[in-house]
Amino acid sequence: MIKLATEVELISRQLFEPLCFQIVRWFSSSKIYEHAEVESLLDSLTEGAQNKNNTALRLLCSNGVAEFAKWSLK
Questions:
Q1: Which domain holds residue 49?
Q2: Would you list the DSSP string of 61-73?
Q3: CA distance 45 to 14
Q4: How many Å apart are CA 39 and CA 5, to the nearest integer?
Q5: Under a CB-based contact definition with an 8 Å cutoff, are residues 9 and 56 in contact?
Q6: 72 and which of 24, 28, 62, 65 could share a cystine (Cβ 3.0–4.6 Å)?
């Protein structure tokens, strides 16, 4: 889903980028951070933020990590 949010095609980005951020917000509002799903999401975001080849993926994932931190502090 994260890779689809960074596709070159506009329709893919328009559909999946907001969905990614909605999922990040939804999981960050959970008070139990040790769920396997939350761990998987954060692992995927941190791996994508470290990607050297795809700048769009790196930008989306780093924004996703920032969004998770912001919404988990609310």
A1: 2-72
A2: HHHHHHHHHHHH-
A3: 19
A4: 20
A5: no
A6: 28
Domain count, the chain: 1
Average pLDDT (36-61) is: 94
Q: Is the pLDDT of residue 70 over 90?
A: yes
User: pLDDT for 15-46, tens place per residue?
Assistant: 999 999 999 999 998 777 678 899 999 999 99
Say if residues 71 and 63 touch (Cβ distance below 8 Å).
no
Q: How many alpha carbons lie under 13 Å from residue 2 in its C-beta half-sphere?
A: 25
Q: For all residues of the chain together, what is the average pLDDT? A: 92
